[in-house]
Amino acid sequence: MEPVAVIEIRQVDTGLQELFCDYVPQVFRRADFRRWRAWGEWTDAYRAFSVVESGRVVANASVTRMRLVLEGREVTGYQLGAVGCLPSHRGRGLARKAMDVALDACGDAPVLLFANPTVRQFYPRFGFQPWKQTLFAATYEAVPEGPPAPPLDLDDAKVRAGLDSLSSVGLPSSERFGARGYGKVASWPVANGFARPLRQLGSEVWVFAGVEGNTLYLDDVFAREPFDLRAWIPRLIDRPIEAVRFGFTPERYWPGAVEAGEDAEAHLFVRNLRLSQEAHRFPIMAHT
Ligand SMILES: CC(C)(COP(=O)(O)OP(=O)(O)OC[C@H]1O[C@@H](n2cnc3c(N)ncnc32)[C@H](O)[C@@H]1OP(=O)(O)O)[C@@H](O)C(=O)NCCC(=O)NCCS
Questions:
Q1: What whole-number distance in Å separates Cα of residue 161 and Cα of residue 152?
Q2: Ligand 1 mean position to 95 CA, how many Å?
Q3: Residue 84 Cα: closest atom of ligand 1
């Protein structure tokens, strides 16, 4: 059998990116990179390590360079994503080949990934260990008041640039286990239609948030300076609420929030990464 080669697909490799975009929905039914790519979000921070056979990407492991924030300290790390193999090509060691090359590219730096229940036994083979993620919630009654916070549309290049900039120079939503500079990660679920709306509270405060039932889900907060999040809640809701849930560790924005169980859907795996023993939730908008 021919030796299997893994090729690196970078920002400049637009032809190979097409092959990658063809591969993704064949493995992950709800995922697509085309709109995100058309938005110009594939930068040098995103590299796909792909096995190409007969002009098709058949297996892959992608690496996103991240500015992680660990207990207040910024550290360069990597997040794996789009790890998979076409159903027709499984069981031949192809995902392993892609994983080995992707992990070589990460060196000794911290690596994390969010898996799914079918691959919990896969990542430990590559030196990863599972790590608990915690849900955070607060009981809080509020009613709508004042002008609603305007929505922001990431289809607009200026809005994408604004999110990049706030995320790069602003405060991380959590210092315990968070990140900076992930505007181009947060835009991915938006491009796929999975994200809650992005809303503007003041010129330098943007949040991903939405109401379901009587709960406000605050998925992430991008702010240049500290601000009083509670004061803005009435402008983020279109009906009375009784609770808030957070997509990140809210030690900064809602110190009284309580732990609301384990995030059983996160399936976080880490490698060369020592995380806080205190309960935490890596911001969901920073997941790849
Ligand atoms: C999981 C997946 C990537 C494996 O691809 P593959 O090419 O068949 O994997 P390989 O043949 O390279 O297997 C590598 C090793 O992992 C093992 N393995 C494969 N699939 C596994 C699974 N689902 N769980 C546990 N171990 C698994 C193999 O036995 C092999 O072990 P070994 O090298 O120690 O002998 C593939 O099944 C897939 O694409 N699944 C759907 C997409 C998905 O869920 N991806 C993960 C996103 S987080």
A1: 12
A2: 6
A3: 39
**Which ranges in 51-110 belong to alpha helices (H)?**
94-106
Right CATH number for 6-130 from 3.30.365.10, 3.40.630.30, 3.20.20.70, 3.90.45.10? 3.40.630.30
Name the residue with the closest Cα to ligand 1, atom 38: 84
The model's pTM is: 0.97
For residue 51, pLDDT beyond 90:
yes
Per-residue pLDDT band at 202 (split at 50, 70, 90)? confident
Q: Is the model's pLDDT at 1 over the cut of 80?
A: no
Domain borders along the chain are 6-130, 134-264+282-286
Distance 54 CA to ligand 1 centre (A): 21
The DSSP bridge pattern shows strands 198-200 and 205-212 to be: antiparallel
List the beta strands (DSSP E) in 54-186: 56-70, 73-85, 111-114, 129-131, 134-142, 151-152, 177-180
> Which residues line ligand 1 at a C-beta cut-off of 6 Å?
27, 59, 83-85, 90-96, 115-116, 118-119, 121-122, 125
